[in-house]
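Quick one from the shared queue. A colleague (R.T.) flagged Threonine aldolase as missing a structural entry in our internal table.

Convert sequence to structure tokens.
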Amino acid sequence: MRLMADEEQQAEAPSGPSAEDEKRAARARRRAALGGARRTLRDGFSSTLRDRLAELTRTAGDVHDLDERADIYGDGVVEALEQRVAGLLGFPAAAFFPTGTMAQQAALRCWAGRTGNSTVALHPLAHPEMHEEDALTVLTGLRTVHPTTEPRHFTADEVRGLGEPFGTLMLELPLRDAGFLLPSWDELTALVDAARERDAAVHFDGARLWESATHFGRPLTEVAGLADSVYVSFYKSLRGLSGAALAGPTDLIAEARSWRHRYGGNLFQQFPTALSALAGLDRVLPELPSYVAHARVVATAIGEAFAASPGVPWFRVHPDPPHTQEFQVWLPFDADVLTEAAVSQAEETGVALFGIWNRAGAAPGLSMTEVSLGAPALEWTHEDVHAAATDFASRLPRA
């Protein structure tokens, strides 16, 4: 009887917070600190519903006639957005998609049908390989080959040297998981030429193509015009609510619309997303070159601050200088330690220089974070960044 009573008391005793509760509390703390900082480098994605709705209401009337009937299955404002994108990229047609994953699957399977080859040559760090749970193969039936496994863009010679035929060459511009890397203009044109020599179609994963034109020193139409089709995103750089577009030849886009329907992407109404995308094209797109230029100022200041900080034994800013307004910073500390330093800095000073850090590959004690600039970054001087980076370094444990 005594044993049963003890067991009942143990069952009734409070067990304390679970590991999952602690994780949720840590996430909430990070969001509150980083999202509530008075100074950040990027427009926050942690805005409240009220903030996003107010922003959409404030900008929508400037980009489209709000007395027009709401869209139904892709007409109206969605059609206007498609025409705008086609013109910006220099293609005869474009189709809106709810996600870039869906847009690229449609494009690549369309090219497979036209070339008669279901093999796609792409980088192993490209988005379909890293972030789509093998959707390209599982849902679309395509297979992939890799001209290189190095964390850089492959070369024209590597494309020519692939030991088997492929129907499409896909280039992610910039290659995000390798550090937002872009090839030079000559390297890019050589890659396209090499694909043509192999009788392959060329598709650009241009989720961040909008800001890449600055690096190439060419207009968007000239950059996009190298490819047979291009996908672009509306929410990554342009601050839209979501969505993407696929641009290309009229017949390819017509077939892609059919695949969009089959994939369940032909939504009844999409006017909030379309309006936010048009606002991004009007308001953010013209500013992107200034963000790219300022990324060099920010990267230089971070590097100088870390080089002068005794608590930083080693660091890397990659690429140096940045190719777009986004780049990586690497440090030889555990990700939890670096994230805590970023959170505590935001809590105590109101300054959020860095966000979440992640373990870098298989190397223990090596971590990386992505630095992404938006409109708020333009208010940071070299001295501001240097001071924030110095303060961040002072929060790291000494060896």
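The two ends are 56 Å apart (CA to CA).
The chain has a mean pLDDT of 94.
Added to the table.
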